[in-house]
Amino acid sequence: MTTTTVANVPSGIARRRLHGILAASIALVLLLAGCTGGNDGTSEGGPDPNAPTTLRVLAGSEVRDMEPVLEEARKATGIAVTFGYTGTLEGAEQVANGSAGGSYDATWFSSNRYLGLLPKGNQALTTSTKVMASPVVLGLRTESAKKLGWDTKAPTWAQIGAAAKAGRFTYGMTNPASSNSGFSALVGVATALAGSGNAIDPAQVKTVTPQLTSFFSGQKLTSGSSGWLADRWVEQVKNGASAGVDGIINYESVLLDLKARNEVPGGITLVYPSDGVVSADYPLSLLASASPEKRDSYTKLADWLRTPEAQKLIMERTHRRPVVPGVPLSGEFGQTMLVELPFPAQRAAADGLITAYLDEAARPSQTIYVIDTSGSMSGDRLQQLKQAFATLSGKDVTKAEGFTRFRNRERVTIIPFSGTPQPAQQYEVPKGDPRPVLDQINTSVDELAANGGTAIYDSLATAYAQAQQEVAARPEAFTSIVLMTDGEKTEGRSLESFVDDYRALPEQVRAVPTFTVLFGDSDDSEMQTIAQTTGGKVFDARTSSLDSVFKEIRGYQ
């Protein structure tokens, strides 16, 4: 289970929402400190997680923007909330196998549909309360929507796929193995393409995979979270990058937020596919293991969230649809009647869709791991690194963790470094039997030894030289760099020197993001600078395991 590991939280979308919502209230600041979470979903100075009036909630990052609304709930009901954030699929596994019960009282994911397919999934919950709704749709720059004619006539998913295959537009989408918006989009596209009108089954997954491959040929941007996807897209559009994409598939709420704040130059048009969508219904769910006192707190909070006043507040502040009859929709939602597509009734179909996406339909990935093996990494730190790569190579993992393993067609490059960068070790996972190559990757990392100094920026420069070769060889691939260091630079070029060299690289190479990992005594500010300069993201392995952070990063590759 991963908790709040992202160092620069909340995301840009959440930050912009909070800016307009948060008054200078000391009480609210303290509550938010408790909501952002540590290993157990709490932090020093927040509400007491063991108090009967505090609900400990395991949640998807999508509900982070509900924190200000929950402050209003606390004022009205006396019930406080502390969050631990995780991916939807991983969180579902935690609930179903019972491990979430020791640390949490309730869950709040964008959907419980996948959890319901797992053995003992439904039994782990006693009750669920739907709080709000948001369909997953396509948001396009208005200029692109007009060129395609989709500003006046809604296309089908098949027509969207045909336009993507023909190169008429490009888009971004979150990884369906880590984010519910991507998973919902995948389910919606596949179900619509199957055309039976029923929930897609395992046999149909195989039938529609070639069409999915065509559809996802237009995907140019991936992400592990809906907020980061929106931020990265807006950044590309504003910077006028030639590699920028025309739109993103995301929650309606995220897209309406961008639209309301004029975040997209030239405007944004929401496109609702005529053959249907899959919507998130955000059920606040009580774990069967919760104490009677926590159950009472859950009931008070859930009841308040469904009052007309709360539903209007949620709609105004998060751009999500109310689920209580009698609360009218605001004008921003338009007049489009939504057709809801059915969710898979079998786990084999849901898992088959994710596997087909990762191993066949999505663009291949190529990732360069820049790994610190300096003397300070000896002992437990190096062992944590080896365990993380054992998971990524598919050793002794659960089904959800299996989605994080290196994928068929993926190119994995490992650049160990200490006082100097070592020669790159490159592997390509084949389509057929991936096990021999996965074992080679695991063995190469398992043989690493710690010694010497720390040449961070010489090694990162070597990684970008490698990336330049790989982007030229496979421009269709998602290319990224992961930098993991437990200390500060002791040898080689400076951060400033690296940044100067980076800015001189060709545009397509500068588009390669670096995901930095805070570990041990690594320099926070320098890792933030690297991530911000390259369009990447910072992950914090000091408050959770390195294994969980590496799994989280997989959603962005």
Would you kindly provide a written description of the structure presented here, covering whatever features stand out?
The protein has 22 helices and 17 strands. Strands 5, 6, 7, 8, 9 and 10 form a six-stranded mixed β-sheet that branches. A six-stranded mixed β-sheet has the order 14-13-12-15-16-17, sandwiched between helices. The longest helix has 18 residues. With 557 residues, it is an alpha/beta fold. Helix 3 crosses helix 12, helix 9 runs parallel beside helix 14 and helix 15 packs antiparallel against helix 17. It is globular. Helices cover 42% and strands 16% of the residues.
Low-confidence blocks of residues? 1-44
The total count of strands amounts to 17
Helix content: 40-55%
The major beta sheet can be summarized as:
6 strands, mixed
Helix segment count? Answer: 22
Calculate Rg over CA atoms: 23 Å
User: So what's the overall shape?
Assistant: globular
The fraction of residues assigned to DSSP E strands is 15-25%
Report the structural category.
alpha/beta
User: What would the average pLDDT be, to the nearest integer?
Assistant: 88
Give the CA-CA distance, first to last residue.
19 Å
